[in-house]
Amino acid sequence: MGNVIGIGASPKRKEDQRFLTGRGSYVSDIKRPGMTAGAFVRSPHGHAKLRGIDKSAALAAPGVIAVLTGDDVADDGLGSLPCGWGITDAKGVPMKEPPFPMLAQDKVRFVGDMVAFVIAETPEQANAAAELLNVDYEVLPSVVGVLEAVRPGAPQLFDDVPNNICCDWELGDKAAVEAAFRKAAHVAKLSLVNNRLIGNPMEPRAAIAEYEPGTDRFTLWTTSQFPHVVRFLMGALVLNIPQHKLRVVAPDVGGGFGVKQFHYGEEAVITWAAKRVMRPIKWVASRSEGYVSDRHGRDHVTEAELALDETGKFLAFRVKTLANMGGYLSTFGPNIPTNLYGPLLGGVYTTPAIYCNVKVVFTNTVPVDAYRGAGRPEATFVLERIVDVAASEMGIDRVEIRRRNMIPKEAYPYQTPVLVQYDSGDPVGCLDGALVAADAKNFGIRKSESARKGKFRGLGYSTYVEACGLAPSRFAGRLGARGGLYESATVRVHPTGQVTVMIGTHNHGQGHETTFAQIVSEKLGVSFENVDIVFGDTDRVQFGMGTYGSRSLVVGGAALSKATDKVVAKGKKIAAHLLEAAEVDIQFEAGKFSVAGTDRMKTFEEIAGAAYVPHDYPLEVLEPGLEEQAYYDPVNFTYPGGCHIAEVEVDPETGTVTLVNYTAVDDVGTVINPMIVEGQLHGGIVQGVGQALFENAVYDEGSGQLLSGSLMDYCMPRADHLPMMKVETHSTLCTHTPMGVKGCGEVGTIGSPAAVINAVVDALSHLGVTHVDMPATPNRIWRLLQNASLPVAAE
Amino acid sequence: MKPFAYHQPTQIPDAAKLLTSIEDSKLVAGGMTLIPTLKQRLASPVALIDLSRLGSLKGITDDGATITIGAMTPHAVVAGSKLVQARIPGLAALASMIGDPAVRSRGTIGGSVANNDPAADYPAGVLGLGATIVTSTREIAADKFFLGLFETALEPGEIITAIRFPLPLKAGYAKFKAPASRYALVGVFVAKFADGVRVAVTGAGAGVFRVPPMEAALSQHFDPSAIAAIKIDTDGLTSDIHAEADYRAHLVTVMAKRAVDAALS
User: Fold this and answer.
1) Assigned domain for A648 exists
2) If you placed Cys at A748, which of A114, A480, A685, A759 could pair as Cys (CB 3.0 to 4.6 Å)?
């Protein structure tokens, strides 16, 4: 049976062999015969009318092959970039869905909006020619903030979208919430901003497109988290290329975090252009280009109110949010601040009535879409912040008020008032575990030590629950999804017993090649080394919806589990024939098919061999070969949850916040590879800490210029910003996924912003500080301390 | 990056001649600022004149009264120099705080001083220590060298060959790093000499500047308490998305105190 490395083991990651030795194959590593280079001309203005484009100087530049603009797109009758979700307002009126042309046609609506595509022999020539393109802009005033965008008289992005409001969405029983507020003993209120973020995957986006006239086929290599979805959206809805004539390959991809889970205009333009010039074209974004074209995340302005009775029990929760969509609707854009936000406002609490209203707003900024966590960190931040505000105002301990409102373990499955039904969980267990791991009871001692050094120390708690494992298709369809959200896997057993898995998820850092191999190794009893995972190529993989929303293990792993079950079932039929036994008497365990109660057996390899050399085989009733496929559509979301505790130290002299301790206790269901789960938690927490303390996308109101458009001005979290983290799991098993898994890709990002900010507020609470907006930069903290009239320079 | 010619002279006069004879040519030392600028196509010199073959520009020498650092000496060498650590530990500390290890291995003192970035560290050390900038044609006192935002007293064709530092009794540098770039949001270099104290500030304004009231107070009493109450006027200080002018002014006082602390420790 060889070297089985199964569920619960932590082998080193298979994929790291090539990544760590520089042998990965990324899009920008690929070279095609006769390949040309493309460069996009992007709008330098936040908002402008396109009066005309003069191509002559660019076309005359050395090496230039073609210059394509929105007029050429229109001439070819191509479609608009599609939005994958259609939401409706309270009256059932569909969202406003203006076209998103792949190259701007009448107007540009954000700095970075694509105006033209220049193709030349070399990248240098393409870039040089792009600078020569003469675009006549009539500059219009820009509006970048949501509050400004909905004001009367604000610049209007689209003639038929009054007040820039795409959709006025709501969820929950408004009347029940109002009734609960009327009888509340206390109402806590909080206004907050959820800061705009830029994902910054290590590898910038890139694409190569090629058209083969001999077969009339297109191939697009792209940095994508979901190549099959790109094939569908681009082929069927934008370029009118039949699916069988379009191959999309997403090879090794250097990080995604959501940024690469959309169908981008660049992909459509380069594929279309490759046929126009009859040469392969490569485009690789610079980091600067990424800042103004990669979809951004978050960007909410919110007012929240929590109604409580005299004991601190939550009676009702009301949230009103303005969510920034940017200049156009991106692939999942309107889904993120609505369906992935409102249904999470229950958190781990028994709040009986919840109402959420979200105005989804267009502005002259890069389109906003999913970024790790996507809606759920925003929901958690509102809820966990206002719980602290309420506790403080009512004089109830922050842990105690959470405990009083938590859903008890016995109450699962638990139906929330906002659509979702949690299948499993143990919030109290996570909280108790985190309190111990964080040594919360001795916090006072540490606070005193900090005070002796002139520092303010704070402890912050955040519980959370997330809906992940996206998603049950029928449920999602009712919410406005325009596609399915299942996953597929093929298990191909070779005649010699090795296994190749073709799976529709995409590995870009998550460790799928290892985790999925462990599942196969365990379930089929084959060596871990004898399992390879294939993904990211529509010609090699049957179908798939890709990787996002913590879905790969939950949905893809379930499909894989089902497919291995089918392999075993067929193997039993073959074994029954070879062992001359009834199929019901065949057992499969540890890589051996045996007849129950006897020592007669066949190894997995023998069965595979028989399937492919069917000399002694039940050909009348069974096909040769050993390859099975399964599709899995989940019956519900999964609901990982947990408790995070952050501990910070604030230097009142400079306003610097230092994260000194971080503890996470998470319920992610069954853990396949503990090392990988720990890594996912670390990464997720760091991204949440980044939002809380460092990262901020800042636009200039009026001009629409991105002021934080480089790594010099957009602060990414770094190793020296972070303490060693304590990460533990406290798992309850998901009741509806085949292996009990819940997903772990986003939990770190969801729990951490609120934990960190609650710690900062705690550190400053003695000065009357009740809220700190993110990121809690030194300047911002110093300003708060100034306003608190603190004698900071106390020496 | 746009195409350019590339020259690697081995003699200073040859380098100076290339620089004056080729219009739109630029010197490249470590390239830590210039190369990113070229990559972003924000500059397009016709020719680059690489100073790395000029062996005479590297190294650190001690004549008893001064320390002279060759213009092409990388920051990591200054930071790790036993000589600098012994004679002007504050300067070694400053060099160790520049950028990251890659930048410190490539970036040079001459390049940093010639570029005069308003948030670079070396200008604070050079002005704070009252150093002398030695060029291919003359010597320039630090007080006359830094002329504001990316401007210096260098003439066309003039090449920095070394920086000569007098030895202070005590010196220290404190830097509040800009969170993203790790340039100085505010950096303060304090140096005590027999005849007085010099205080130089980088990062806060359009160029490095001295703070006479702090110098006077520290000359009387070289202790952080002497300057704790000295407030900096916000006029001329920078406001940007990372820090407003009044915060920078506040940080000047805080970092000056910490620089004195560092000098005393």
Assistant:
1) yes
2) A685
Residue-range definition of the domain harbouring residue A461: 296-470+636-787
| Distance from C-alpha of A652 to C-alpha of A658, rounded to nearest angstrom | 11
**Separation CA B108–CA A64 (nearest Å):** 39
Which of A779, A787, A795 to mutate: most B Cβ within 10 Å? A779
Classify strands A281-284 and A36-42 as parallel, antiparallel or unpaired. parallel
> Which amino acid does the sequence have at B166?
P
In this prediction, residue A478 carries a pLDDT of 93
B201-220 pLDDT, tens per residue?
Answer: 999 999 999 999 999 999 99
- Asked if residue B119 belongs to a domain, the reply is no
Cα of A694 to nearest chain B Cα, Å: 7
Domain span at residue B26 reads 1-50
pLDDT band for position B238 (cuts 50, 70, 90):
very high
Query: What Å distances lie between residue A417 and A44, A283, A351, A495, CA to CA?
Result: 46, 47, 8, 53
For residue B181, the distance in angstroms to the closest alpha carbon of chain A comes to: 4
The confidence score (pLDDT) of residue A792 equals: 47
Helices and strands of chain B, counted as H and E runs: 11, 12
**Residue A590's domain is classified under what CATH number?**
3.30.365.10
Is the four-CA dihedral A71, A84, A555, A199 of positive or negative sign?
Answer: positive
What would the pLDDT profile of B21-76 be if each residue is shown by its tens digit?
Answer: 999 999 999 999 999 999 988 899 999 999 999 988 999 999 999 999 999 999 99
Low-confidence ranges of chain A (pLDDT < 50): 792-795
User: How many structural domains does chain B have?
Assistant: 2
Q: Which residues of A touch B (CB under 8 A)?
A: 124, 127-128, 131, 286, 288, 653-655, 694, 696, 698, 707-708, 711-716, 777-779, 782-783, 793, 795
DSSP E strand stretches across A15-105: 36-42, 48-54, 64-69
Chain A residues whose CB is inside 8 A of the B257 CB are 795
Mean pLDDT of chain B: 96
Place of tokens 């420790």: B265
Residue B62 lies in a domain: no
Strands A421-422 and A592-595, bridge-based pairing? unpaired
The pairing of strands B139-141 and B132-135 is antiparallel
